[in-house]
Amino acid sequence: MEGKPRPAATAAQAHAAMDQMIALSHIGQQDMAQRLGLNITDLTCLGHIIGAGDQPITAGDLATRAGLTTGAVTGVINRLERAGFAHRQPDPTDRRRVRIVPDASASVRVYELYEPFYLRLGEQFADYSPDEIAVLADWFTRTTALMRTRLDEIRNP
């Protein structure tokens, strides 16, 4: 499958488009969190919890992924439990550790909210060739690593 012709763009134009997408994404995440009765940090953590799938995430791993202290993650988990989105579960291999698992209804509520957008993204990806999707995936992966590096630099000068 060949990709569709694309308009020419400079790196500066791509950078500006990325900045616009990130800004809109922040606003969208705020609105999504509000619809679920959560704050943005709790929604981000819930995303990590749901994204862990069949390998539940530990509280410590959640803190690392979200860039939070373990104390802050304790507050997040408490709020997610109270709101019915997640619960603590003892780690079957190490009782000192706790795993955080989503409640069954949590995934349903989150997917219902995000599904229309993800369906549209799927339609948009269908406009790209496998080679173009590989470039996009590479770009997102590498840019995420750059963002993590920069956040580490900011947090640990």
Core attributes:
about 160 residues; mainly alpha; three-stranded antiparallel sheet; 6 helices
Report the total helices: 6
Oligomer: single chain
Largest beta sheet, briefly?
3 strands, antiparallel
Strand content: 5-15%
Question: How many distinct beta strands?
Answer: 3
Shape designation: globular
List the SSEs and their pairings.
Blueprint: H1 11-36, H2 40-51, E1 57-58, H3 59-66, H4 70-82, E2 86-91, E3 94-102, H5 104-125, H6 130-155
Antiparallel strand pairs: 1-3, 2-3
Helix pairs in contact: 2-4, 3-4
Describe this structure in words.
With 157 residues, this protein is mainly α. The protein has helices at residues 11-36, 40-51, 59-66, 70-82, 104-125, 130-155, and strands at 57-58, 86-91, 94-102. It has a three-stranded antiparallel beta sheet with strand order 1-3-2. A hairpin with a 2-residue loop joins strand 2 and strand 3. Helix 2 crosses helix 4 and helix 3 crosses helix 4. The model has no long low-confidence stretch (mean pLDDT 92).
